[in-house]
Amino acid sequence: MPGCLKMHDLIQDMGRQIVRQEAPNPGERSRIWDYEDVIEILNEDYGSDKIQGIMLDPPQQEMVKWSGTEFEKMKCLRILIVRNTSFSSEPEHLPNHLRLLDWDNYPSKSFPPKFHPKKIV
Q1: Is 35 within a domain?
Q2: DSSP-derived 3-state class of residue 33
Q3: What is 1-32 written as a DSSP string?
Q4: In degrees rounded to 5, what are phi and psi of residue 81?
Q5: Which domain range does residue 23 map to?
Q6: How many domains does the chain have?
Q7: Looking at the domain assignment, is residue 66 inside a domain?
Q8: Could you tell me if residue 105 is left (phi over 0), alpha (psi between -120 and 50 degrees) or otherwise beta?
């Protein structure tokens, strides 16, 4: 398919293993794709400024119980993909450095007032 980048599963797995080895604690990783890790980080509010990418796409509908401020600590977050997930409240903060925001069923009619992304695609 033109304009599409494909990656072999083994290369993807190798990249994920490298990220896991760099930081055994999911809240300290640069990328988080395991939905259980993402939900735990959001529920327990232990994310960090090391997180650059989050993909939350559980196999079944999941509920995140949070205050809505959990993204404040994630100052370097550039990619946020959320699917098949509902939230107990709307986000009060989204990082302005986001480049990609793909959030199915966003839990609010508007973005947080201080969200002014300059490089979003």
Answers
A1: yes
A2: coil
A3: -TT-----HHHHHHHHHHHHHH-SSGGG-SEE
A4: -120, 120
A5: 9-103
A6: 1
A7: yes
A8: left
Report phi then psi at 116, rounded to 5: -135, 75
Averaged pLDDT score across all residues of the chain: 89
pLDDT band at 117 (very low <50, low <70, confident <90, very high): very high
Distances (CA, A) of 88 to 1, 3, 30, 51: 39, 38, 25, 22
Read off the pLDDT of residues 22-51 as tens digits, 9 standing for 90 and up. 777 878 888 998 899 999 999 988 889 999
61-88 confidence digits (pLDDT tens): 999 999 999 999 999 999 999 999 999 9
Decide if 54 is inside a domain. yes
Q: Is residue 94 part of a domain?
A: yes
Inter-CA distances, 26 with 29, 55, 92, Å: 5, 13, 23
pLDDT per position as a tens digit, 104-115: 999 999 999 999
Would you state the structure tokens that stand for residue 25, as one six-digit string? Answer: 């604690």
